[in-house]
Amino acid sequence: MKTIDIKTVVQDLVDYCRQLLEEFVPPEEEEYQAPNIAGTWITKGNTYANRWVFRKSGTVEKYYKNELYKVYYWAIRAPSDPTESELRELTLSNINNPGTEIDFQISVLTGEQLVLVYSTGIDESERVFDRY
User: Per-residue pLDDT tens for 35-47?
Assistant: First the structure.
């Protein structure tokens, strides 16, 4: 009577399943690495009293006349429109009013400058920030 090594049979079965998965499951897309937006940003022509502070924790604090005005969660995503592959999207979600979102396209994000494009309902407008 022949003996069967259960460990070997199970290992062979696992290896076979892995091979099948590699053949039929597409490779995962590379995870998008968001640019470093964390820091304090001031719109052109404004002062430190009116600033946006992006935290690494995923929140942004908007100040008006040095008073905390609103707090949002922020997220940077790949564009929803595949024809604009170079632009990223910034979404701000109001912490105190879930479901309320503001969407921007990031046309520039460097160590010194941030340019956000947004719809006014009639056309598009830009908001230019400098890093503080």
Answer: 689 999 999 999 9
Q: What are the angstrom distances between the C-alpha of 6 and each of 12, 13, 109?
A: 10, 11, 57
Burial class (CB in 10 A: 0-12, 13-18, 19+), 117: middle
Indicate whether 23 belongs to any domain.
no
Q: What is the pLDDT of residue 5?
A: 73
Q: Is residue 30 part of a domain?
A: no
- Residue 7 tokens read as 């460990």
93 assigned to some structural domain? yes
Structural domain span for residue 89: 39-131
CATH number at residue 109: 2.40.128
Give the torsion sign (CA, 48, 49, 51, 56).
positive
Domain count across the chain? 1
Strand ranges (DSSP E) for 10-112?
39-43, 51-54, 59-64, 67-77, 88-94, 101-109
Q: Two tokens at 1?
A: 């009577």
Tell me phi and psi for residue 41, to 5 degrees.
-125, 140
> Is the whole-model pTM more than 0.70?
no
